[in-house]
Amino acid sequence: MSSNEAKDSLKAVNYLCSLRSQGSKYGLDRMRALVRVLGHPEREFPVIHVAGTNGKGSVCAMLEAALRRAGAKVGMLTSPHLVRLGERIQINRQVMTDEEITSFVEQLKPVSEKLAADDPEDHPSFFELITAIGFLSFAREKVDVAVVETGLGGRLDATNVVDPILSVITSVGLDHVAQLGSDLASIAWEKAGIVKPTVPIVVGRMPLEAQAVIRQVAEERQAEIHEVEAVFPEAPLDLPETNLKGTFQRWNAGSALVATQVLGARFELADSLVREALLEVDWAGRWQRLQMNGRILILDATHNEEGASSLNENLEELVKRGKARPWVVAGTLGEERANALMGVVAKWA
Predict the structure, then answer these.
(1) What are residue 347's phi and psi, to 5 degrees?
(2) Which of 20, 115, 259, 347 has the most CB atoms less than 10 A away?
(3) Do the Cβ atoms of 206 and 189 come closer than 8 Å?
């Protein structure tokens, strides 16, 4: 990359980050206006839409791995990124380059400013622009299918302008309560906002209170519902294996396997092929083990009560197997998340 290209890339990233610093904008009006002006790129490819309190990124990675193994060209839109912004938008697991991001920002900036000409509040947010960049990229590269993860909730999430061939809700737990509601039923209703009329929905393991809400929404919208707990009645014994660590990831693998079964022959996703992909899937930051100076470093992005339960299981196994307590460096955003996480960390560290 030349010095001028590097400067342009920095300008593009700074522009996007300046929008991020303005906070989240919850709602669909801006996103609908944006994709309309762009000619609806989100309609150019089939979409699998994935929501959930936890596990949605892992399930996206699992589905992407299976679809790619079956020979499909797969777009994947996820959040957040861990190191580079381009991680959010991948095609066949190739991260979007800084140059590509810059090009799309140059295309979208005047469009965004025009949309906000009468009211600054109509300017697309950081996440809305990233979502639009993903849609434009997938359309331009003519992907066979895109796996799209919601950012927050479902009903009013920017990604919910898609018309999917399949929807997946991985789990429901208490998180983002200020935006989604303070009880499981309210959060489940928000996430069930991705359920589309007559489009099948796969539902992962979750509390009965949340299941009931999603069942009701699916029935109202005549969406065929496939519940992972019903498919694997002897879980965890009969859940598919995956190289991602923990029982929770095996439940995610179950959701991914059921989703591929619902898709049927459309992508030639034989169970044996999917199970092979589940054993090879890679997803950074989820109990990720690295070697550093002859020692093992584990990175994990647990950040809420439901995730802390899975972290507890992994830490317990680690301590029992190693017969020594690990050093832990942990951080949280907000007291509510700290309460869930730090009790688990302090127990085993």
Answers:
(1) -65, -35
(2) 259
(3) no
Please report, as a single letter, which amino acid is at residue 165: I
Q: What is the pLDDT of residues 85-95, one digit of tens each?
A: 999 999 999 99
What span, in angstroms and rounded, lies between the C-alpha atoms of 138 and 104?
12
Confidence of residue 17 (pLDDT cuts 50, 70, 90): confident
Cα separation, 52 vs 73, in Å, equals 25
φ and ψ of 289, to 5 deg: -100, 125
Q: Name the token pair of 4.
A: 């001028």
298-307: pLDDT as tens digits: 999 887 787 8
Higher pLDDT: 22 or 91? It is 91
CB distance 86 to 101 below 8 Å? yes
Question: Looking at residues 63-92, what average pLDDT do you find?
Answer: 96
In eight-state DSSP terms, residue 33 is H
- Distant-in-sequence, close-in-space partners of 344: CB < 8 Å, separation ≥ 6: 308, 309, 311, 312, 315
Question: CA-CA distance, 76 to 148, in Å (whole number)?
Answer: 6
Burial level of 277, CB count in 10 A (0-12/13-18/19+)? buried
Compute the distance between CA of residue 198 and CA of residue 308 in angstroms, rounded to an integer: 35
> Rounded CA gap, 320 and 116, in Å?
57
pLDDT for res 25: 66
d(CA 78, CA 284): 12
The contacts found for 296-304 with CB under 8 angstroms, 24 or more apart, are: 298/326, 301/82, 302/341, 303/175, 303/332, 303/333, 303/337, 303/341, 304/53, 304/54, 304/173, 304/174, 304/175, 304/337, 304/340
DSSP letter at 309 equals H
User: For 94-118, how does the pLDDT look when each residue is reduced to its tens digit (9 = 90+)?
Assistant: 999 999 999 999 999 999 999 999 9
How much is the pLDDT for 13? 76
For 245-298, the pLDDT digits (tens) are 889 999 999 999 999 999 987 899 999 999 999 999 999 988 899 999 999 999
